[in-house]
Amino acid sequence: MIAQNFEYETPSTLEEALELLADGAKALAGGMSLIPLMKLRLAVPERVVDLRRVPGLNSIRVAEGQLHIGAMVTHYELESTPLVRRSSPLLAAAAASIGDVQVRNLGTLGGSIAHADPAADYPAALQALEAVIRIAGKGGERAVSAAEFFVDTFTTALEPGELVVEVSVPVEAAGTGVRYEKCEQLASGFALVGVAARVAKKGGKVSMARVGVTGLAGSSYRAKNVEALLEGTTGSAQDVTRAAAAVAEGKEANSDIHASADYRAHLARVYTARALRAALGTAG
Amino acid sequence: MASTVTKTEVLFGKKMKRKEDPRLITGTATYVDDIQMPGMHHAVILRSPYAAARIKGIDARGALELPGVAAVFTGADVKDVGPVPCGASLPGLRVPHHHVLAQDRTYFVGHPVAVVVATDRYIARDAVDRIEVDWEPLEAVAEPEKALEAGAPAVHPQWPDNKAFDYHQEHGEVDKVFAEADVVVKQRITSQRLIPCAMETRGVVAEWKSGEKSLTIYTSTQIPHLMRSLVAGMLGIPENRLRAVAPEVGGGFGSKLNVYAEEALMGFVAMKTGKPVKWIESRRENMLATTHGRGHVDYYEIAAKKDGTIVGIKLKLIQDVGSYHQLLTPAIPTLSVLMMPGVYRCQNIRADIVGVFTNCVPTDAYRGAGRPEAMHGIERMVDILAAEMKMDPAELRLKNFIQPEEFPYATATGLTYDSGDYAKPLKKALGIAGYAALREEQRAARSAGRLMGIGLSTYGEICAIGPSPATPAGGWESATVRIEPSGKVTVHTGCSPHGQGEETTFAQIAADELGVDFDDIIVLHGDTAIVQYGIGTFGSRGTAIGGTAMYFAIQELKAKIKRFGAMMLDCDDVTFSGGRCVCDKTGKSVSIQEIAAASYRAMKLPPKTEPGLVATYFWEPPNFTFPFGAHVVVTEVDKETGDIEVKRYVAVDDCGKIINPLVVAGQIHGGVAQGLGQALYEEAVYDDSGQLMTGEFMDYCVPKSTMMPWIEDSNTETATPVNPLGVKGVGEAGTIGCSPAVVNSVVDALSPLGVRHIDMPMNREKIWKLVQGGAA
Which residues of A touch B640 (CB under 8 A)? Predict the structure, then answer.
């Protein structure tokens, strides 16, 4: 549990950081994923670029109906900042469900999503929120949707040398019901499955449903089939159960010592129903 | 200076905050890793990545080239170091030679292969990756029942059947009672492999003083004196030139009741290099290479009459030994056999143990060591019998208990239970739980389609281990009590506490006996250069044996104090109490502090009396002690997910007389946490090739504080006649009582579905499948 010898850089501008990353260095944000991997020597970077002194990555602001969050904002800041809790209670709830207080005090939004653990909590919320992820590289900036960003297990749309700089999610409209429900892998606290739900009702009918799923498969995903089955219904218990039953369709469920594929798929259905029921309960 | 007040407050039985805790919770205690020495080097060990492999060659040149690396040692360098000792003996026991570094083969993932010594730990670890080993991987076997199958890979080639030992014990007319029984129930019950997970991993600092030809080994151990005797033998140095120190030890749970390869290896390295050397085990190494616990597959049969009287018990016990015997490995399952009748009056028993080698880290003591397995077995079987006979499990137990007037009670396994009143904690626990009302609630829950369970265990266990004839290396304990010239009291205990709170409980006893302030007493332990020879802390023995040794040392001192008091008061008959010697005739008195000063000043001495106030006592106990208790657990199963909620946990434990209720409650809480861990979450999982799949806290689930139920704990107090304090021991009780109560509760919850047994850990997928598929 001792990392291999490595060089350590603390650039003070984004440009410097991107220069170093382009040179093959590994980005270090909160270190909650990278450092354990380095201590186990599953990651052996020769050079690590600590982003903590890079300005402009810590802001939380609302503009044009969007909540913009800097990549270096910690989980604890997300769960506790009134602006976030008000503007995106789903994102705040996902942040609050991560690890323990020590982890949340250090771990960051950008670091977590760039790592793309298939059982991490944020991806479910970001899929359901149709988040936009702003990425910087030496050649400039680009933005991708959450659906494009999360590619596979530990694989994102980030190209070598690129960095997540900001995540944007919509400011939640009044009356939207949201919920993050997760079945924890009890040893790690990661999600065996985690389901983020957003729903709105109009005239007694479900007018909008968004469902993001983590933990079940190699990558997080938006369960559009569930959304389609629910939208237009009254959102009754039966409607929810019928819609949730589709959540694992077409997905190859993960299997490990903590849960078989069949059981994970079952949990995904149960937790989707639970998340939707709870979200509908607060939608109005 | 001298106290003139007679001390009247009795501390025995009082809730006292632990003397140990301020330094532990403020980070000012000294653990092995806190030790720094000038010129200290650091060692990191290369371990086998294979469960079974031949070592065809080792090339350490790459490591030696790295600046800062002082030395690399491999198997060839240490072949003359004595083997890692097995202290237990059984007829026909097969003991593989256990070198401190692998020779030409490795036998488990984590097996030490080479050690790098460097100026810092990071360099040493980098150098480990530069050692090239020419491996030839071999077929491995990780499951004991698979290892017994014909054609299984041989763990040790010289013993192709993989048997480490056979052990048989029998009493009474087993075949007859089974033939004549009205009911016989059978069940295969496992007690899975567990990783002890002490919060502090192991660690060693070794320092060789070449001028004095003396070696000091600081090690995180439960048994510094035994470690010293055995490692001195392994290294071939005189025992009096080896000093062993157990500094603050961050938990052991049996995993540090051992002598490990690394302890001798660091001594060897320090002597070879002339440098002080530190080795600190990583968490991953701890999970791979520190002993595991449990590892049973048990086949039980119980015979009963139609009124529920248990008449016979048969047990076939398969013990997963692992690759080697550590200090007590083969002895652990024999403890299970000793306790197999539990708290029930059954004189016909037959037990057969087969110890099995596997390509896994050795098993050995883990909190309860043999008794949790035994209690899990008998308490599950009694519930299975109750279900078969449609009897209430509490009634069936009450019917079969050994009765209070039958003590001392000779068991079928050769033990003599000291004292007991088994119905008392059971009735108290059922009362606290509101058993009748719970059964009503359960009926209502069931008709509403909910899966609610009520489970109980009534356990008995062996503590105060133990009389010397029953142990491999002496079962007594020692104490030296020194009353200093100022009247302050220093106690040296031979047992080596590491979290049990003896610095507090011993001070409570000494304060009462000597009439001095609690704060005027310190208890020292763990350093063989300071403390007289002792045995250690394990088997819930510290207070019952070590405390008793101190008690008797104090009695010797009290006699001497009275002689000094009589002289100083010029009085023939004096009484010593509350810290003062009082002349019975005149009522004049002198304090213990004044007596202490006079005893060292020695201007005048009583007849045939030496100066000073120091006494040493080695106490040999006449018997074990046998605590008992009852746990009642209420659970509810989530039908959708298989999640188990522990809704109530009632524990009533009888550990004899209670010195400090806070310490007792702490032991019960911790014990229950580890019992719940086994019942619900924990399992060391090896894959077929012998790779440990649960080698991180990311995968091995010890219960966290947020996962613990509220424990409604209380006690009954049945004194033991074995020692004058009346105390029995409580370190392992919580664990022993817990797992059967939890499993009984969940089986009860699922019984409407036809479920009659569930093996541990009862993880949610297992339970979900039972809910889906019914009977198991």
Answer: 270
Neighbouring C-beta atoms of residue A55, cutoff 10 Å: 11
What is the distance between the alpha carbons of residues B482 and B227, in angstroms, rounded to a whole number?
26
Phi-psi region of B643 (alpha: psi -120 to 50; beta: other; left: phi over 0): beta
The torsion angle over the Cα atoms of residues B762, B767, B773 and B774, rounded to 10 degrees, is: 80
Domains of chain B: 32-138+201-249+256-289 (3.90.1170.50), 296-466+623-773 (3.30.365.10), 476-619 (3.30.365.10)
Do residues A222 and A212 make contact, with C-beta atoms less than 8 angstroms apart?
yes
Q: How many angstroms separate the first and last alpha carbons of chain A?
A: 51
Query: A260 contacts in B (CB within 8 Å)?
Result: 765
Q: Which of B464, B437, B458, B452 is nearest to B378 (CA)?
A: B458
Examine the pLDDT at B2 and tell me if it is beyond 60.
no
Coil, strand or helix: which one is B775? coil
Which of B122, B284, B698 has its CB closest to that of A188? B698
Banded pLDDT at B776 (limits 50, 70, 90): very low
3-state secondary structure B361-372: CCECCCCCCCHH
**Inter-chain Cβ pairs, chain A and chain B, closer than 8 A:** 46
Q: Is B751 on the interface with A (CB under 8 A)?
A: no
pLDDT one digit per residue (tens) for chain A, 284 residues: 899 999 999 999 999 999 999 999 999 999 999 999 999 999 999 999 999 999 999 999 999 999 999 999 999 999 999 999 999 999 999 999 999 999 999 999 999 999 999 999 999 999 999 999 999 999 999 999 999 999 999 999 999 999 999 999 999 999 999 999 999 999 999 999 999 999 999 999 999 999 999 999 999 999 999 999 999 999 999 999 999 999 999 999 999 999 999 999 999 999 999 999 999 999 97
Q: pLDDT tens digits for A31-61?
A: 999 999 999 999 999 999 999 999 999 999 9
Record the tokens describing residue B463, joined without a space: 């503590």
Q: Is B282 on the interface with A (CB under 8 A)?
A: yes
Q: Do A188 and B699 touch (CB under 8 A)?
A: yes
Strands laid side by side in the B53-59 sheet: B105-106, B53-59, B132-137
How far is it, in rounded angstroms, from Cα B244 to Cα B260? 14
Backbone φ and ψ of B524, nearest 5°: -105, 150
The DSSP bridge pattern shows strands B69-74 and A47-50 to be: unpaired
Percent of chain B with pLDDT over 70: 99
The verdict on B600 touching A (C-beta cutoff 8 Å) is no
- Token look-up 């966290």 returns B704
Number of residues written out for chain B:
776
Do A110 and A165 form a contact (C-beta atoms < 8 A)?
A: yes
* Gap between the Cα atoms of B231 and B673, Å rounded: 34
Cα(B408)–Cα(B330) distance, integer angstroms: 28
Mind listing the pLDDT tens digit for each residue in B268-285? 999 999 999 999 999 999
Token duo for residue B317: 């016990």
Which of B129, B282, B768 is facing A263, going by the closest CB pair?
B768
The pair of three-digit structure tokens given for residue A170, joined into one six-digit string = 């919509």
Q: In sequence order, which residues have a C-beta less than 8 Å from that of residue A221 and are 6 or more positions away?
A: A127, A147, A150, A212, A213, A251
Contact residues, chain A, for B768 at CB < 8 Å: 263, 266
